[in-house]
Specification:
Number of domains of chain A: 2
CATH superfamily of the largest domain in chain A: MucB/RseB, C-terminal domain
Oligomer: heterodimer
Helix content of chain A: 40-55%
Mean pLDDT of chain B: 79
Mean pLDDT of chain A: 81
Number of strands of chain A: 7
CATH class of the largest domain in chain A: Alpha Beta
CATH topology of one domain in chain B: Rna Polymerase Sigma Factor, Chain: A
Helix content of chain B: over 70%
CATH architecture of the largest domain in chain A: 2-Layer Sandwich
CATH class of one domain in chain B: Mainly Alpha
Distance between the termini of chain A: 46 Å
CATH topology of the largest domain in chain A: Phosphorylase Kinase, domain 1
Number of helices of chain A: 9
Low-confidence stretches of chain B: 90-94, 164-169
Shape of chain B: globular
Low-confidence stretches of chain A: 93-112
Radius of gyration of chain B: 17 Å
Order of helices and strands of chain B: HHHHHHHH
Number of helices of chain B: 8
Order of helices and strands of chain A: HHHHHHHEHEEEEEEH
Structural class of chain B: mainly alpha
């Protein structure tokens, strides 16, 4: 078949067509094609498909880009928060949840216990610490890095307070929190109206990723999820839909 | 952290390809640009979370794909009848001769008949020049799956267009 290593597969023929072959492999394939008319026919057909498709679609890429797709305009809109909700909504969709008919996960579905425990802790910490007008956090906004390092070390997992300024929430500090299941981190934010939002995070046993679950406690709404062994909850005294959007935005920032 | 000017410039450079891919995917101009728009909003809002070693273009296609899949779940996207003629003829009219246009239209029609998962892979590999590994990452499947979708897609295109019988295409540009 060939004098250079492995036998020739269909994958090689595609890679030849797509010019993704290693240089030394090319003559081997070309020799094979000379000896195998059926393979040569295939390659010729695929090559032509490729150039026909490229030619047929080429000019779309040359058209002027509509203004609403101008990334500088989008960036400006994001900065001025106009698009933030839309971005968050898109994330909700990207995570396969939401879309039409309102949100009532907590009514339709019993959240997994990991999520429930996590959310309970988050609600408790939120209630205690955000109510403290004088000293709601252990380390303030100016010690963001210190807090991130401290909490990360205690949890054995790197975390950092996400930036929610595009959503109108300013980071005001955070603290190490205690739970029956070990240390947790809490980050606190506040908007111009004085509404305080917290993000609560700690390692969880569940290595799978759980979608956003909505939970409520009194006037507080929370949204909890897990990602790769870490649990997160966003809590705020806001309508559930707003908390969900914010949580989706946080997840976006955290999930990278 | 917001994207800096050079980062936005690099995102901007991806837009023509994203629009082309989105249009070939959903076959409706407005919907294609909606997809690209959502993709850009996410990409620009999320830029700081991108790992430096990941290719920006492949990353943008991944976001576009995720937006597409999530919207696909909600609504059945049907091909817009105007798309084929529009894409193959109007947009390229000044540059191509009649024969080319017919060939292109046949090819786009055939492409449309592929199952979506094959169409996606064929487009990303053949038109957008993503590597097999990048395509696998964009679609979220193993490389082996990409290769089998590519193989099945191309064979189907070959049957549909009878392209093995055609003479080699001359370069248009």
């Amino acid at each position: 078949m060939s004098d250079l290593g492995r036998p020739i597969s269909d994958d090689d023929l595609h890679a030849y067509v797509d010019r993704l072959l290693d240089a030394e492999r090319i003559p081997v394939i070309e020799r094979h094609l000379r000896d195998h008319p059926a393979a040569a026919e295939k390659v010729a057909a695929y090559t032509m498909q490729r150039s026909l498709l490229r030619a047929a679609l080429e000019d779309i890429a040359d058209e002027p880009v509509p203004r609403r797709l101008d990334p500088y305009v989008i960036q400006h809109d994001l900065r001025s928060r106009r698009l933030w909700w839309r971005a968050a909504a898109a994330v909700l969709l990207a995570f396969g949840i939401g879309a039409g008919g309102g949100w009532s996960l907590h009514e339709r579905m019993t959240p997994p216990s990991t999520i429930t425990l996590l959310a309970e802790e988050a609600f408790a910490n939120h209630a205690v610490f955000t109510a403290d007008r004088r000293r709601p956090t252990e380390l303030g906004a100016e010690q963001r890095e210190d807090l991130a390092r401290w909490v990360s070390n205690r949890m054995n997992h790197p975390v950092t307070p996400p930036d929610l300024s595009v959503a109108g929430y300013k980071y005001i500090g955070g603290r190490l929190a205690a739970t029956p299941r070990g240390p947790a981190g809490m980050f606190m934010y506040q908007n111009e109206a004085g509404v305080r939002l917290t993000i609560f995070t700690r390692p969880v046993d569940d290595p799978t990723s759980q979608p956003l679950s909505v939970l409520a406690a009194g006037s507080l709404e929370g949204c909890a999820w897990t990602d790769k062994g870490m649990g997160y909850t966003v809590v705020a005294p806001l309508p559930a839909a707003d908390v969900e959007r914010l949580a989706a935005g946080v997840r976006l920032g955290l999930a990278g | 952290m917001r994207p800096t000017a050079p980062q936005v410039k690099r995102i901007e450079d991806c837009i023509p390809a994203l629009r082309r891919y989105a249009l070939a995917l959903v076959r409706d101009r407005d919907r294609a640009d909606d997809l690209v728009h959502d993709c850009l909003v996410l990409a620009i809002g999320k830029q700081h979370t991108r790992r430096e070693d990941t290719d920006l273009r492949a990353w943008m296609f991944t976001i576009l794909h995720n937006v597409f899949v999530s919207q696909r779940r909600r609504q059945n996207i049907r091909p817009d009848a105007a798309y084929l003629d529009d894409t193959a003829a109007h947009a390229v009219g000044h540059r191509a001769n009649q024969e080319d246009r017919l060939l292109w239209r046949d090819m786009l029609r055939a492409l449309e008949q592929l199952p979506e998962e094959q169409r996606i892979v064929v487009l990303l590999v053949s038109v957008e020049d993503l590597s097999y590994a990048e395509t696998a990452a964009v679609v979220g499947v193993p490389i082996g799956t990409v290769m089998s979708r590519l193989a099945r897609g191309r064979e189907k295109l070959r049957q549909l267009t009878g392209s093995e019988a055609r003479p080699a295409l001359r370069r248009v540009k």
